[in-house]
Amino acid sequence: MPKKEKMAKTPLSDEKQLLLFQQKLLAEEEMAKKKERNTTVL
């Protein structure tokens, strides 16, 4: 029973982790772009 519960719970947590990871990557990309813009302007 506990194993089944874990199997059922993991996909949701994995999806959430993936979403958070993707959001982090996007934020990092945006920050990098802003930094690039700042350096090019300077």
**Molecular shape:** rod-shaped
The overall average pLDDT, rounded, is 80
Strand content: under 5%
Continuous helix count: 1
Total domains? 1
The span between the termini is 61 Å
Class based on secondary structure composition and strand pairing: mainly alpha
What integer value in Å does the Rg equal?
Answer: 18 Å
Q: What is the string of helix and strand elements?
A: H
Biggest sheet details: none
* Number of DSSP strand runs: 0
Q: Uncertain runs with pLDDT below 50, 5 residues or more? A: none
Helix content: over 70%
Question: What does the model show?
Answer:
- The protein is mostly helical.
- The chain has one domain (1-42).
- It contains one helix and no strands.
- It has one helix at residues 2-41.
- The mean pLDDT is 80.
- This is Coiled-coil domain containing 65.
- It comes from Homo sapiens.
Task: Give keywords.
1 helix, 42 residues, 0% strand
Q: What is the topology?
A:
Blueprint: H1 2-41
Protein name: Coiled-coil domain containing 65
